[in-house]
Amino acid sequence: MIYLATPYTHPDPAMKERRYEQACALWHYFWSRGTVIYSPIVHARPTAKRYQIPGGYQTFQKWDEGMIEVATAVWVGMIPGYQESTGVNNETTFARSLQLPVVELESTEEILRQYRLWDTRETSYSSVL
Questions:
Q1: What is the pLDDT, as a whole number, of residue 118?
Q2: What's the CA gap between 45 and 25, in Å, rounded?
Q3: Which fold has domain 2-124?
Q4: Sign, Cα dihedral of 42, 123, 121, 55
Q5: For residue 119, is pLDDT > 80?
Q6: Where exactly are the structural domains of the chain?
Q7: 3-state secondary structure the chain
Q8: Least confident of 8-17, 47-56, 111-120
Q9: Residue-wise over 13-45: b if at least 16 C-beta within 10 A, else e?
Q10: Whole-number Cα distances in Å, 39 to 43, 52, 123
Q11: What distance, in Å, lies between the first and last C-alpha atoms of the chain?
């Protein structure tokens, strides 16, 4: 199973929604090609939103690390803000501590353009992660 790490938290709610949509698109792209892939943003966000679970990465850290422990690799969606993301940085650090491969998805922009979810204006946002 591949663990898909992407940034999420942002002070602008519209940007958080955009990042969720981008994570969904990346997950769908790989899932539709037969990859067994897990995304904490895709899989936990709907429940967290529905039940108003507060917090960011720290709220889900133990759960995320449990999923990384059973993953074969961590793939990083290179969505603007991923390099500054606390969650992505903690997830990749944890994966490396387990000697799992960590791969930055160079194809992120190309994939998101197919889903009409890439906008160069996003790079002007600064992540608070």
A1: 86
A2: 14
A3: Rossmann fold (3.40.50)
A4: positive
A5: no
A6: 2-124
A7: CEEEECCCCCCCHHHHHHHHHHHHHHHHHHHCCCCCEECHHHHHHHHHHHCCCCCCHHHHHHHHHHHHHHCCEEEEECCCCCCCCHHHHHHHHHHHHCCCCEEEECCHHHHHHHCCCCCHHHHHCCCCC
A8: 47-56
A9: eebbebbbbbbbbbbebbbeeeeebbbbbbebb
A10: 6, 19, 22
A11: 25
Question: 77 forms bridges with which residues in the sheet?
Answer: 105
Tokens linked to 22:
């981008």
Strand order in the sheet with 102-105: 37-38, 2-5, 73-77, 102-105
Q: What is the pLDDT of residues 13-29, one digit of tens each?
A: 899 999 999 999 999 99
